[in-house]
Amino acid sequence: MRVTTKNSISDYTEKEFLTLIENIYFVNTESEEEHRKWVNHFSEIIEHPRGNGLIYYPNKNRPDTPEGVVQEVKEWRAQQGKPGFKVG
């Protein structure tokens, strides 16, 4: 599925964000440059101190899957009082 990047994490539904993560995780891109762009975008919008390390170096206490990444991002953002995903 084609990914359209958005300005902030709250512009994504959870499903759209999962699609972005899946495309990064499984390198479903047309070029290395596009993949790098998506990884950088991910790191910027999540605002998590570990950035793309959430994908490449997952915590041992969560599944090493795109769904695990989404769950960790959701939990961390909620703990920090940051906005979550768009409802829809």
Automatic annotation (TrEMBL):
Gene Ontology biological process terms, A to Z = bacteriocin immunity
Q: Which residues form the signal peptide?
A: none
Domain PH intervals:
1-47
Q: Where are the transmembrane segments?
A: none
Q: Which CDD domains match?
A: Col_Im_like
Origin, by domain of life? Bacteria
Keyword list, A-Z:
Bacteriocin immunity
Q: Which GO terms describe its molecular function?
A: toxic substance binding
Q: Which family does it belong to?
A: Belongs to the colicins ColE2/ColE8/ColE9 and pyocins S1/S2 family.
What this protein is called in its record is Bacteriocin immunity protein
Q: Which organism is it from?
A: Providencia stuartii
